[in-house]
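User: Universal stress protein, Paraburkholderia solitsugae:
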Amino acid sequence: MYQQILVAVDGSETSAHALEAALQLARDAGAKLQPLFVVDVPLMSYDAPGYDPSYLRTALLEEGAHVIDGAVASMKRAGVQGTPRIAETDLAGDDIAHCILHAASDSKADLVVMGTHGRRGFQRLMLGSVAERFLRIAQCAVLMIPAHSAKPVTSNAQAAEPIREPS
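Assistant: Predicted structure for Universal stress protein:
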């Protein structure tokens, strides 16, 4: 079924649900899992007079290391193999969704698992959605795990079909 699964993690409850689903799928399919944390230093932090954006970058890298450590501990408990990764967006243009796309391509992922908040209307317009942006550019199967998902995916890997959110 799947040989290489990438899961986007950011420390949120939503990404924790996605990690649990990815762990279960990886364990059931005998696949390798790559938890990915993306560091995104907002461009505006570079424009603030007298502010050194390296402090923010360092804090985000530390947060990423903490999130990845938690993912690795979960992988060990589940008996799942894989290599975690921290990636950074490019100030010249790559956003978080494109960073995930590059990581999926680099690792030859055949499935990307992500959490989605399921925002609609004005919230979606104002906040945007990394999951939605990634879904539009994905080059492999994508499994979206909704924020309100309290149950992990079925333990039968064949029954868990990747889905794509409607546009």
